[in-house]
Design brief:
There is one protein chain. The protein has a single domain, classed as Leucine Aminopeptidase, subunit E, domain 1. The longest helix is centred in the last third of the chain and has 28 residues. Helix 10 packs parallel to helix 11. Strand 2 and strand 3 form a beta hairpin. The chain is globular and about 55 Å long. It has twelve helices and 16 strands. By secondary structure, it is an alpha/beta fold.
Amino acid sequence: MTWFEQLFGFREGAWEATQAQFEVEAEGASLRSRANGRRFAAGRFSTPSVAELRAAAPARSGRARVRHEGIGDVLELHALPENRDAMFQVASQLNCLEFADPRATPEEGVTGYAEDPTQGPACALAAPAATVYRNYFAPVAGEIGQRADRQLDNLADALALLGAPEAFVSVRNGYAFSDAERLAASADALANRGREAFVDRVRIGVQTGAEVSFASRFAEVSAPTTVSQAFCSALSCGYDRSPRSAWAPLATAVLDAAYEATLLAARAGVAAGRCSGVVWLTFLGGGVFDNDPQWIADAIARAVRRAGDASLDIRVAHYRRVDATMRARIDAGLRAAGL
């Protein structure tokens, strides 16, 4: 039996048939499986821009606490009592889904996330009702749910600032593709239109009040709990033949936006009583996405400088053990700002 069938009482199949097995309640905050009658808190989902989150966050007060922690399976972290209503940053794609490669589509469903050992799918599995909502019910261009030809694109507004988006980057199934010529043009456009204006228009997915269903793979929790999740994507530089240096202007701006937006969303959540203030950050863009580790470290330090405050307990998650080099890079960026 798959985890999906265990929770929802039926096997995930064709997209339309699967969507029809769920009833959306409370304006999307709750899902009920028609197959077994169980209700799950999907949470409130939105895709705010950095500028929108900055406007929603209260004035900063004091310094954020930052610590580095080695962790195991991030799925299990979601269920711990001390992480109730924490904000988990999720390494996602630009469509707020978790595709193992750029050929995947929403029609393939979410059951297969269990076969991907990386951080993003683990977070998605921890809060599966929220994951079902994003795949089958997230509103896109006036329609309900994501399809192969209809997906969220959290980079679209920022690229539109630079000009015709396809002139710089093509987004397919949440992955970004380009070439040396278009990346050079994007760097020029970024300089002309303003890097900060670009960052302000980048969006992330935010899901608050998402029910955690699993304490481990795949034992259900013994007591109900909820978390918030921030779905962020780095640019998929590693899927292109262009050198990393060609991607740098655009990719570093996207990383800066993702980390700042996550902290702003957490601060807004604290002010609204939806977030505890604990924020778990991950290393966006590592691995096959081929973002330079220094870019990632710089973006984390920048976000803490610009968006952190005393309401936040920021925890930088390192897989299994703390990476001393990444810790030193992040801490150097914080010290340079007197933090």
